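>> received
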Amino acid sequence: MMHVQPHALYTPTPSYTRPPSQGINTACVDLLPLTPSNQAHLNTYSHVDVGLDPFPYAGTTTTAEALFMGVPCVTLRGACHAQNVGASLLKVVGLGEVCVAEDEEEYVRKAVGLASDVQVCWWGDCVDCVV
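>> returned
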């Protein structure tokens, strides 16, 4: 995984509101505004520890972007193509065993496990991935 920049280096736009708690420490969630360029968009991944592929419809582009930027992404295997794009991408890059879950409980376990181990280096040497 890439080195994560200290949280204090960027400031989310105050007009974005925090999601309801639902057991999540909302201080750990930042909702960021639209970025002005592709480069700025990709640079926001330097603030991400783990990508969470949505389900039942996989993220595809966001999963590919996360992997391109060195951020592991957890996905839930589904029953059809639209639900398995993330699983296919992760398998191809060698992260299927680590990042593809078979059920929602495993999805949560894998996400928590990856988020708890920020010293893991996914792409060989630990380097900052900034475009």
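>> The CA atoms of residues 35 and 41 lie 5 Å apart.
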